[in-house]
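Design request, tokens follow.
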């Protein structure tokens, strides 16, 4: 019985840690948060912003980082998907359009996950940074 309680306690602690990780990785949907990691200089658009449905989405990365985007559950990884990368300036962006995986942003709320990693480490050691914004 004691072993079962100990195992249940460990599972609860692990679950609480997982929830805390997800919450800390999310910058929120009402206003821009200071919870972005050092790898991100700026979210495009800012968390909680209101933009047009054809607006560019992305991140401005610190030097030495790379990323790809997941916008409303759709992975945007390559130039063929419409992902634009200028690692010299740190910009990784996607602009919706005809023939692209996302032709326009959703009316109301849109959520993005930027999968970010140090260029020297590669994407296997990435961290998610997520935020939401509105579109009209």
């Amino acid at each position: 019985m004691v072993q079962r309680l100990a195992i249940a306690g460990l599972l609860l602690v692990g679950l609480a840690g997982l929830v805390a990780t997800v919450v800390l990785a999310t910058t929120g949907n009402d206003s821009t948060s200071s919870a972005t990691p050092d790898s991100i200089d700026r979210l495009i658009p800012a968390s909680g912003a209101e933009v047009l449905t054809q607006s560019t989405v992305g991140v401005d990365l610190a030097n030495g980082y790379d990323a790809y985007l997941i916008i409303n559950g759709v992975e945007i990884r390559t130039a063929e998907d419409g992902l634009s990368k200028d690692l010299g300036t740190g910009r990784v962006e996607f602009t919706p359009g005809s023939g692209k995986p996302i032709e326009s942003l959703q009316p109301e709320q849109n959520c993005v996950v930027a999968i970010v990693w140090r260029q020297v480490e590669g994407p296997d050691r990435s961290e998610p940074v997520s935020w939401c914004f509105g579109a009209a």
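Comment from the thread starter after seeing the answer: thanks! Confidence is low (pLDDT under 50) at residues 9-34.
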